[in-house]
Every structure is written in C-alpha cells, then in structure tokens.
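Repro case for the chain-ordering regression, as requested:
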Amino acid sequence: MAYSEKVLDHYENPRNVGQLDENSKNVGTGMVGAPACGDVMRLQIQVNDQGIIEDAKFKTYGCGSAIASSSLLTEWVKGRHLDDAEQIRNTEIAEELALPPVKIHCSVLAEDAIKTAVRDVRAKQAS
Amino acid sequence: MNLPIYLDYASTTPVDPAVAEKMMEFMTPAGHFGNPASRSHMFGWQAEAAVEDARQDVATLIGADPREIVWTSGATEANNLAIKGCAHFNQRKGKHIITSRIEHKAVLDTCRQLEREGFEVTYLDPDSSGLIQPEMVAEAIREDTTVVSIMHVNNELGTLNDISAIGKICRENKVFFHVDAAQSAGKAAIDVEAMFVDMMSFSAHKIYGPKGIGALFVRRKPRVRIEAQMHGGGHERGMRSGTLPTHQIVGMGQAFKIGFETLAAETARIEALRTRLWEGVTDMDEVHLNGSEHQHVPGIVNISFAFVEGESLMMSLRDLAVSSGSACTSASLEPSYVLRALGLNDEMAHSSIRFSIGRYTTEADIDAAIAQVRVAVEKLRLLSPLWDMFKAGIDLSTVQWSAH
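-- result from build under test --
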C-alpha cells in the first residue's frame, strides 16, 4: 500500500516522541488502543494554569498511519487550550494525512487519545 | 546487490531464465505452438511430446508415475479438485473431512464450501510449534471420514509435517490422504510411495516456474477416483478438461527438473543463510522464532520482534521485500490466523515478519537485511509505549486495554 507524503514524513521524523511525568498534576495521559488490535497510543499533554497545552509527547505502537496520526496530533495540540484541543476530530487528522479508508481507525484512535488525555488532566486538577 | 532485496520467495519466485527460455520455444510460429490434443499432425505431436516430457519431470521429483499427474491452473485449483473431487466421489461412504486450521485458504475455503453442501469438517489445531502431529489425525478419524488434507510445509512458518506418519495412519484407516505441497516441492524430499499420499497439489511459481500452472498427483494404485470440477473435452483422462497450455507446462517441467537436480545443494546453502539471518538478530531482546526450530524447510523464517508492529517495521524496511503476519490493513484488524492457531497472542502475531529465502539470495543480501532490521527494530522500540512498559517491568497481559 502506498503511503501519503505526510504519513511518510511523520513516520520518518516523528515529532515530540517521549514521555512526560505521569504523576505530575499538570500532565494528562491518554493511553488508548490494545496490543491485540495492533495499535497502542500514549499521548501526554502538559498544561499551564490557564489550561493551555505547553508540551505534548507521544509514543505509539502501531502501523505507520497510527504513528503519523499521533505525531501530527502532538503538533496540533501544542499551544491550544484544553477546550480547543478536545474539539479536534478524527476526520481532520485523516484528511490532513490523506489516510485511506482502511486506516481511518488510526485517526479515530488519535481523537480518543487527546480526549482521554484532556479528561485525565482535568480530573487531576479538579481533585 | 540489487535493491530492494527480495526475501519473499514463499509468496512467489522469479522464473528461472532456463525455464523462460524453454517456454519461449512453445509459442511463436517458429516454435512448437501446436495443440497437444491435435492427433492428426506434427504440430500436435510435438506439443504432446513436450507435455509428456514435462509430466515425467514432475513425476520424477515426487517418485510418481507420469500417468498420475494431472495439469491444473495452479495449486489452488489442484486443492479444489482433490478435496471436492474426492469428497464428492466418495460421499456415499461418508461425509466427514479432516484438515488443519493452518492450511492455505485454498484448502480452508474449499472445506467451507463442502460444509455448505452438508459435509462435516474437523479442523485440527497445530501444536505450539505449528506442526500437525500424526496422533491428532488418528484421533480425529471416524467411520465416515473420507478425506484427510494436511499441508506438507506451512507457507507462513515453514514447518514441515511428518507426512509419512500421517499417510500411514490414513492408509491403515482406508481414508484418502491429500497433501498440499505447494511450498515443499523442490525444497524438501517428496516420495509419494513412502509417504502413502493419495493426492498431492503443486504449483510452478513457487519453484521458479511460471504462474498460472500447477498439477495434482492422483494415485493409480490403489486407485483414487475423483469427480471432475471442470468439464469439457475430456483432457487429462477426464479429470480436468481444457486445452493444455504447452508453454506453461514445459516451464513447470523444466522448473521441477532443475528443482530435482539442485534440491540437496540448495537445501544446504539456504539452511546456512537461514542460520546466518537468525543468528544476526537473535541477540536482540525479545526476538522469537515462530514455528519449529528443527522440523522446517530452511527457506522460510518467521520472527516476532516483540513490541514492534509488523506493518510499521516493514515500512522501515523499505529495501527489503518481506511479508508480515500483521493484518493492520484488513478491515477486521485481525492478525494472521496461522500465528493465532499456534496460540501466539495477538500482540506477538502483529509483531511478526516472514523472511523467505531462495535461489538468488546471497550472503550479502542476508547481511544487509540483518543490518536494516536491527536499525528499524531499535528505532520503533524507542517509539513504542509497550517497550517502555516492558522495560519498566509491567506485564502487558495484566493491563486493562481499551479494545477498539
């Protein structure tokens, strides 16, 4: 199967690979997917007191499209407010990366990842 | 070295130049283009003689009589003809068939079709190394069993079943025994007498012959009768009608002839390449061989690189033509049914790569493959949250995953 230029670029040069301190109060973690399905994404965001995402890191086990979807997502969420970040739709990711129909689930997973991460950091800050 | 490096010989092989050259003699006006069924002139006689020579070459490789070879369009058709043909012919005796879960789809889907027609099929589970043990077959045979179909070599794992032992059990129980030998012809010794095989399927393109041609061995003594699936001019003693494709057939004959002559030397050479490949990657953490360490053909090596997904690994290995047990592209997201049948967890199945080595593979090819695999696995593990968890001592099977 042929990959789009953008998928290849993110795959070859993934942005923001890494890990943030999971226990920190201003870090939210979204771990989604399952090894059995062939994709696991871990997306982490670090927010300031205004709810702006200052940093984002990811690691992904999965196909090239899954890696590219999560890499792109980290670029998109940086500098955005939590309210704004959770509005990101999988269709925007799929469109940006020109994902073929069989790979749409990768973008769905990325949407789940940011939603889960936002929920996580909100829960931490509320407690 | 030519890039990309072809390490997918189990999927198909290039046609040996000597085979292609021979095929060329049977197509053009200057060549022997006649219809082998034309009995009234020289054109037909020459084509018929060439077809019969090729039949002999195929028979020689497997220790059969040339009259026991039926040409087909490939191993898929041979499997259909053998299983449906034998099951239908013997349906008054019984309607039970035995096969295994790791057969090629050409066998499994044929059995599914028979189930729709009212036959009952038992699917044997392989052991954890991918082998079908003879006693599994013995235990599954019933009064109404008519056909057992077990592959010689598994296409994903390279595992080599003990066909002689299974054949003996079938013969003792008066059950017809079919073997899919698409992956073993020219790669492992075959003797249909010693192996008690009643029907055996072959493909030319897995053994440096052309695509679109195969054969079915159908035993004469004791006689095995099958119902034709393709009706027409009564070619191939009524078992498979259709004008014989002379050029394809001579190509297959030549390929089997070369396969016979080079079997021993090539097996040793490829075994050495296999060992070189395995030793080149096995010192990395969490690298597992799928299949049997001892009972295999050397040309197929299936390896799981844990915590790395197979499709992304292949993406990194752009200069290698290999295949993966991961099925990320399929709608179901299900990995290889063969690897799952071994009891491998899905994660390990998703992490598998099949390397298949063949006639034109060199040591330099293997060394280049090793180097690329090592770089790619390392890169992807640094990207893998599962690798982090493994390194942190977390047992992944205890994690609550959100399946999607």
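Ordering looks correct now. DSSP finds twelve helices and 13 strands in chain B.
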